[in-house]
From TrEMBL:
Listed Pfam families: Oxidored_FMN
Record's protein name: Alkene reductase
Alphabetical list of CDD domains matching this protein: OYE_like_FMN
Domain of life: Bacteria
Residues in the signal sequence: none
């Protein structure tokens, strides 16, 4: 029987009413000192008809802080500020996971107060966001071998705070060139110890971070997002099928809530990875392989691309930009209604404009 976007799906202890997921997107509506706001509670509550919501990228510890103005889970006080957000989502009948993002070398001392850290002392050739505007990324401090497990545990510690704050689970951000992706890479990771060199060693950090998180809050509440071969933030990955195949083989034994893959490699590789994963497989079809003339990156996910991936074996499909301007996205997809387009000028920072003021579809007689 053909799987529909509007079928239910069992995700751990959660029964999702549909297979439409709101992808994690950093909207930067937190306070300057890292707290979630009432604006954020309203924003997520507006979109609670999704089968699952995934939050903005949330910093798990101080040294992993990449973005100014992003709400964190670094302290109990920051976690408490998320409680109105999760309560609002649950009141509206929704479910929400927190995405945990350690920036690694993608950061700046003026944001965190600390020199960024990474697998090796290799800077990304890019500018990063700071309170004073874009600045060149600094050279990170290479983590000592004995320090690496502490950074892996930071995800688990933030996950415990997330669950205490009412989140239904967490997603580790292993995609897009942040710390987990830096360990997986062949150019940001030049280590010669047990965390570098061979594929088995390069996937070790990701596995340890996920294991620690699953031990802390339960595997059924733990997911991970990956972007095979994406090349974002200067990360190079050699032999993508082998690296990600080995990683999924290791993670598959943990019985996680899901793995969330961006369609950043070719379709045969994606399908091959799906075959190696026995649990819930989420895909974001918004591919970086088809930028075309778009100045803002990937081609947005639509109903056609979502159904294509369901046909290839995905269980859930995440939508990013489509959710910015369409809080009623599930209903628009169900009825094949036109989708509004978001204004890129309001993607990050600011107030309610371009955040809370997108209306539901207006039916006319």
């Amino acid at each position: 029987m053909t799987t529909s976007l509007f079928d239910t799906h069992q995700l751990g202890k959660l029964l999702l009413p549909n297979r439409v997921v709101m992808a994690p997107m950093s909207r930067i509506r937190g306070t300057a000192d890292g707290y979630a706001t009432d604006l954020m509670a309203t924003y997520f509550a507006q979109r609670a008809t999704a089968g699952l919501l995934i939050s903005d990228a949330i910093q798990p510890n101080r040294v992993g802080t990449a973005n100014p103005g992003a709400a964190g889970l670094r302290t109990d006080a920051e976690a408490a500020s998320w409680r109105p957000v999760t309560d609002a989502v649950h009141t509206n009948g929704g479910r929400i996971f927190a995405q945990l993002m350690h920036g690694g070398r993608v950061g700046h001392e003026s944001v965190s107060g600390l020199q960024p850290v990474g697998p090796s002392a290799v800077a990304v050739d890019a500018t990063v966001f700071t309170p004073a505007g874009p600045q060149s990324a600094p050279v990170p401090r290479a983590l000592e071998t004995a320090e690496v497990p502490e950074q892996a545990r930071s995800y688990a510690e933030a996950a415990s705070r997330a669950v205490d704050a009412g989140f239904d689970g967490v997603e580790l951000h292993g995609a897009n060139g942040y710390l987990i992706g830096q360990f997986l890479s062949s150019n940001a990771n030049l280590r010669t110890d047990s965390y570098g060199g061979s594929i088995r060693n390069r996937i070790r950090f990701a596995v340890e971070a996920v294991e620690a998180t699953a031990d802390a809050i339960g595997a059924d509440r733990t997911g991970i997002r990956l972007s095979p071969g994406a090349g974002l933030w200067g990360v190079v990955e050699e032999d993508v099928p082998a690296v990600y195949g080995a990683l999924l083989d290791e993670l598959d034994r943990l019985d996680l809530a899901y793995v969330h893959l961006e369609a950043t490699t070719d379709e045969p590789t994606m399908v091959g990875l799906r075959r190696r994963w026995s649990g819930t497989f989420m895909v974001n079809p918004s591919t970086w392989l088809q930028r075309g003339e778009s100045p803002y990156g990937p081609v947005p996910t639509n109903r056609e691309s979502a159904e294509h991936w369901l046909g290839l074996g995905a269980d859930l499909v995440s939508f990013g930009r489509a959710y910015l301007a369409n809080p009623d996205l599930v209903e628009r997809l169900r009825l094949r209604l036109p989708l509004a387009e978001a204004d890129p000028a309001t993607f990050y920072g600011g107030g309610s404009a371009g955040y809370l003021d997108y209306p539901g579809y207006r039916h006319t007689a």
